[in-house]
From TrEMBL:
Substrates-to-products reaction catalysed: Transfers a segment of a (1->4)-alpha-D-glucan chain to a primary hydroxy group in a similar glucan chain
Compartment(s) where it occurs, according to its Swiss-Prot or TrEMBL record: Plastid, Amyloplast
Segments of skewed composition (Basic and acidic residues): 740-749
Gene (UniProt): LOC111297990
EC annotation from Swiss-Prot or TrEMBL: 2.4.1.18
Species, as recorded: Durio zibethinus
Alphabetized UniProt keyword annotations: Amyloplast, Glycosyltransferase, Plastid, Transferase
Protein name: 1,4-alpha-glucan branching enzyme
InterPro entries on file: A-amylase/branching_C, Branching_enzy, GH, GH13_cat_dom, Glyco_hydro_13_N, Glyco_hydro_b, Ig-like_fold, Ig_E-set
């Protein structure tokens, strides 16, 4: 720890590039007047927002006593966090002011003109160029202060018009150690790739007041349970094109609402010059992607979502940045160690991208301000932080298997600077935006990840439960006979106490080319020929549809306090996602073939899920019913959860969440008459969801009018029980009559099973085992 501690402190020893209160001058010696004393709005004055001071950071030891064995590292981490908060208070006037860097850096417009500032300590000279001065590098020379911050003030024209027109192109021209370069300003709010051109251009985006979008609807309150629809604007069209914010607003948002989700998570918002990166190689962090429309178009989309009662979560990328030198931050001031670590430490060898130096003062300002910008300017309701595992460890989680041993989390492999940044950004978000949601993509299982910063945690609200999707793919490669019921239960419930998780059976990762969706693993090429209802089904299709529904319901039922689905997967979208790409020539002469820059597999065929003549419709109807069931009963966040049965021989799983009893029969050809299932509360139970309903592509083997009465007496460690019919490959949810609702399916049952004593299982030929 001593050696590591010395290294960490040395990396931290950089003088804060503190901004003064005076717009015209930077003070080197004196601590600045806090920005919030100068820059304020009527809204902020009416409702002051503040970030609570650090707490003791000790409650985590009460929650998880195992952490006491690693107290030296954890206390050191918290001390680093507290020291950073103190320094930000001292030099910047607090985290609230520090996180408003966009009010000082980049372009700011006042009554007298436009000020442009840029942090580029490696540059030898700098000038602002663009359409406004005919790209003349000698016209508007910038001045540098001792902190490496370049500045220029452009007064209004004599007629009072702004010196730079809204929508015109701008760049910063610099003489750097690597030569002369023209770069898009780091804090640019919009950038566009002109037709026929390769590089992007920064756009001065400042529309007249009458043209700016004005939000009309309040942001929804954070729901108790999250049901997230993961989406990508560009590929959300049914046509092979890049879709727009406006079309997504008008066509996709109503669909999401109808399906029963209460949040939409949007990928690829931050500008990225390479479309096929799925938005994860960001070039312009403050600019919404221009492929889909303008910043005001995005605001309109978010406002419409709020009108529908949907939270809008942004997939934010602070774990790395594009290595693009022309359009992005890489080598911005001509040096390797500007926003990033130098040398190999600053390069992600697998992602071919740059890695931020979270110990740098100005990098902290940039990233904290970036998170706040999207919440403040665009009214996003929170974030899914991408690639957090890569941030928290110097090995980035590559070629490492996490076993759960706490030595893997608290040692020399931990990047304390990155963890402290995550604590700061969660502190800022939750302090200033109490209703905002933060979700971290972490595969390592880092303890304290979803505990409050005040208590010593990292501060996220949710962790993405990534192991569940991996487990389903692992099982789908095996025969049904080789599935282990206990293994499924363990994976679904293996999460830390008091740390909430978002569960998912599959996300965009499984839909990408090179991988397979669950539907494709299950049904493969039969999906191309046997999904029409006017054609006979196959054993593979019957099995696939049945298991597709069961996998999703049990994932939602046991996997966490939130649920996520990637758009189109709710109805088993066929094939994969393949972004348009040309042939790629490698330095060694090898050629990786592209797809002819085709958009054919970079779209979502929502029409398949809507078609009443296709079997996709049944899977979509089931997913919709599942979401509405959770909306009604709130079972994901119920304090009552009990797994009463996980029988390997019968392939049965029975559990309770809230007043619901879930019964899963994973057996491929055995159905069970009068199967006894335990329950907690006495009374009458009725079916509220049945995967075997014909509406969902099932075989109609259950009577939705049947009533199930509990009997006293202990069974499966439950004080009561009742008898059910459990057909093969089905999932059925029973609810107490006090919570009574009609079954979600609309079809009329054809069979009626009466309650009698338990009997032997019945082997069926329908549906067939494949």
């Amino acid at each position: 720890m001593k050696d590591n501690e010395k290294v960490e402190v040395e990396e931290q020893e950089s003088v804060p590039y503190a901004l003064a209160n005076n717009d015209e001058e930077f003070h080197a010696k004196e601590p600045p007047i806090p920005l919030h004393r100068k820059v304020s709005t009527a809204k902020s004055e009416a409702k002051p927002r503040s970030i609570p001071p650090p707490g003791a950071g000790k409650r985590i030891y009460e929650i998880d006593p195992t952490l006491l064995g690693f107290r030296e590292h954890i206390d050191y981490r918290y001390a680093r966090y507290k020291r950073m908060r103190e320094e930000i208070d001292k030099y910047e006037g607090g985290l609230e002011a520090f996180s408003r860097g966009y009010e000082k850096f980049g372009f700011t417009h006042s009554e007298k003109g436009i000020t442009y500032r840029e942090w580029a300590p490696g540059a030898k000279s700098a000038a602002l160029i663009g359409d406004f001065n005919n790209w003349n590098p000698n016209a508007d020379i910038m001045t540098r202060n001792e902190f490496g911050i370049w500045e220029i003030f452009l007064p209004n024209n004599v007629d009072g018009s702004p010196p730079i027109l809204h929508g015109s192109r701008v760049k910063i021209h610099m003489e750097t150690p690597s030569g002369i370069k023209d770069s898009i300003p780091a804090w640019i709010k919009f950038s566009v790739q002109a037709p026929g051109e390769i590089p992007y251009n920064g756009i001065y985006y400042d529309p007249p007041e009458e043209e700016k979008y004005v939000f009309k609807h309040r942001q929804p309150k954070r729901p108790k349970s999250l049901r997230i629809y993961e989406s990508h604007v560009g590929m959300s069209s049914m046509e092979p094109i890049i879709n727009t914010y406006a079309n997504f607003r008008d066509d996709v948002l109503p669909r999401i609402k109808r399906l029963g989700y209460n949040a939409v998570q949007i990928m690829a918002i931050q500008e990225h010059s390479y479309y096929a990166s799925f938005g994860y190689h960001v070039t312009n962090f403050f600019a919404p992607s221009s492929r889909f429309g303008t910043p005001d178009d995005l605001k309109s989309l978010i406002d419409r979502a709020h009108e529908l009662g949907l939270l809008v979560l942004m997939d934010i990328v602070h774990s790395h940045a594009s290595n693009n030198v022309l359009d992005g931050l890489n080598m911005f001031d001509g040096t390797d160690a500007h926003y990033f670590h130098s040398g190999s430490k600053g390069h992600h060898w697998m992602w071919d991208s740059r890695l931020f130096n979270y110990g740098s003062w100005e990098v902290l300002r940039f990233l904290l301000s970036n998170a706040r910008w999207w919440l403040e300017e665009y009214k996003f309701d929170g974030f899914r932080f991408d690639g957090v595992t890569s941030m928290m460890y110097t090995h980035h989680g590559l070629q490492v298997t996490f076993t759960g041993n706490y030595n893997e989390y608290f040692g020399y492999a931990t990047d304390v600077d990155a963890v402290v940044y995550l604590m700061l950004v969660n502190d800022m978000i939750h302090g200033l935006y109490p209703e905002a949601v933060t979700i971290g993509e972490d595969v390592s299982g880092m303890p304290t990840f979803c505990l409050p910063v005040q208590d010593g945690g990292v501060g996220f609200d949710y962790r993405l439960q990534m192991a569940i999707a991996d487990k389903w793919i692992e099982l789908l490669k095996k025969r049904d006979e080789d599935w282990k019921i206990g293994d499924i239960i363990h994976t679904l419930t293996n999460r830390r106490w008091l740390e909430k998780c978002v569960a998912y059976a599959e996300s965009h990762d499984q839909a990408l080319v090179g991988d397979k969706t669950i539907a494709f693993w299950l049904m493969d090429k039969d999906m191309y020929e046997f999904m029409a209802l006017d054609r006979p089904s196959t054993a593979l299709i019957d099995r696939g549809i049945a298991l597709h529904k069961m996998i999703r319901l049990i994932t939602m039922g046991l996997g966490g306090e939130g649920y996520l689905n990637f758009m189109g997967n709710e109805f088993g979208h066929p094939e994969w996602i393949d972004f348009p790409r040309g042939d790629q020539c490698l330095p060694n002469g090898m050629v990786i073939p592209g797809n002819g820059n085709s958009y054919d597999k970079c779209r979502r065929r929502f029409d398949l899920g809507d078609a009443d003549y296709l079997r996709y419709r049944g899977m979509q109807e089931f997913d919709q019913a599942m979401q509405h069931l959770e909306a009604k009963y709130g079972f994901m966040t119920s304090e009552h959860q009990y797994i009463s049965r996980k029988n390997e021989g019968d392939r049965m799983i029975v559990f309770e969440r809230g007043n619901l009893v879930f019964v899963f029969n994973f057996h491929w050809n055995k159905s069970y008459f009068d199967y006894r299932v335990g329950c907690l509360k006495p009374g009458k139970y009725k079916i509220v969801l049945d995967s075997d309903d014909p509406l969902f592509g099932g075989f109609n083997r259950l009577d939705h009018n049947a009533e199930y009465f509990s009997a006293e007496g202990w069974y499966d460690d439950r004080p009561r029980s009742f008898l059910v019919y459990a057909p093969s490959r089905t999932a059925v949810v029973y609810a107490l009559v006090e919570d009574e609702s009609k079954p979600v399916g609309k079809s009329e049952p054809v069979e009626n099973f009466e309650t009698v004593e338990e009997a032997e299982p019945v082997e069926e030929s329908e549906p067939l085992d494949c």
